[in-house]
Amino acid sequence: MDAREFGGGLAWKDRAREALATSRRRLLDLLRPVPAEVLTAQHSPLMSPAVWDLAHVANYEEQWLLRALGEARLAGAETDRLYDAFRNPRRTRGELPLLGLREAFAYAEQVRERVLRMLDSVDEEAVQRIGQLLDGGFVYGMVAQHEQQHVETLVAALQLVTSTALEPLPSTAVRAAPRTALPREVRIPASAFEMGSDAAWAYDNERPRHRVDVPAFHIDRFPVTNQEFVAFIEDGGYARRELWRDAGWDFRTAERLEHPLFWRRAAQGWERRRFGLWERLPADEPVCHVCWYEADAYARWAGRRLPTEAEWENAAAAGPGSSTRPFPWGDAAADRDRSNLWPVSGHPAPVGAFPRGASAWGVEQLIGDVWEWTASDFVPYPGFRAFPYPEYSAVFFGSDYKVLRGGSWAVAPEAIRNTFRNWDYPIRRQIFAGFRCARDA
Length: 441
Description:
The protein is an alpha+beta fold. It has 11 helices and 12 strands. It is 31% helix and 13% strand.
C-alpha cells in the first residue's frame, strides 16, 4: 500500500474524517425521509430490511475502527451475531430480533462518536503498533467505502418497494448536448498495461498491480441503450433458444423472463417502474436491471460478446502512449461534468451526456450510470493476498460469480474507480446493472 499519496505521515487522517462524514451524511440523507414502516419491513428475500443494513454498518464500523484498533467493545456478542452478513442470509434477516429503528440510529451515532475521538488520538506509535490496518489509513477507507456501498444496497432495496411511491433521490434531468455522430465502437490495439491498483485504499481483490497483454479488440463507445434492447425483445430475443446459454435459458424459462426487471409493455409503449411510480421508458438511457444471461444473449443476438474485465479496464484506464490512471478522464475526482454518480440524477443519464468523461481511447460513460457486466468470472489476480479478512473477496472467487465494472448512478464518487471490481451471481436483476458489447479486432 502506498501511503505517500496522502503526503506521508498521518496526513491521511484528514481524508479519513472527510470520508466518514460523507458516507454518514449520504446514509442519513437517504433514510430520514423514508417512512419508518418501509425501513423496518423486508420487501423482498433478495434484500435486507433497511434497519438491518443500518445496524450492520454500525457494527462493522465498531469491529474495525474500535475493537481492531484496541478500543473496548460497545455491542455484545448477540449484536455481532445478528448483523453478521455471513451467518444470516438476506432472506432470513427480516425474521431476526433486530434493533428498532431508533435504537439502530442511536447505535450508529454512538459508534461514530467514539470512532472520531479515537481517530484524533491516532499517532505514529499507534501506526507502528497496529501495522498494515493503519498504513495510509486503509481501515478507515475500507469502512467508509463499506458504508457507501450499503447506501447503494439500500437504494436497490427501496426500488423493490411496491407498497408506496418513494423519491429517495432527486430525479434530475441530465441531457446530452448535441454532438456530431460518433462511430458506434472504438478499436483498441493490442497492448500491455498495468492492471489493478496499489492505492492506499484499494481493496484486496484489486491487488497487486500486474502486467496484462490484451489482444486488439473493439468495444462499444457507450453502454447498450433501452431502445437497442427493445429491438432485441421485438426480434424475439427472449424466445430464441440459440441465443442463450443452457443455464441462462433454464433461468429465463423458470422465471418466465420477457423483458428487464421493472419494465412493462403499456398501451403507449414501454414503461419502467422507478421507486413505485411507472414512467415512460427513456429510449436513450443505458438499459438497467438486466442479469448477466440477458446481457450475454443480447450480445450474441448483436453478433458481439461481452468484454473481459481486462478489456474493460484497458478501455477505461490505459491509452495510447499513456500510463494507467484511476478514472477514465485522468486523476481528477469525479464530478457532474464527467460522470453520473449519486446524487446527480436518480437514474441513468442519456448516452453521450458526458464527453468530458471519455477515456484516453475515447470510450465514454465507463464510470457511473450502470454497472457493466463483463465476460469474466471473479477470480484472484496473480499474487493475491486476502486482507484484512478472507470474507471480503476470497470466499467468493470462482465461476459462480461474474465481474461487474464501472459503478452505477447510485454509487458514490468516493466508492468507484477504474480498478474497482464488483461481482454477483449471473441471475441478479435487482442491481443497477447494464452492459456494453465488444468483439475481436
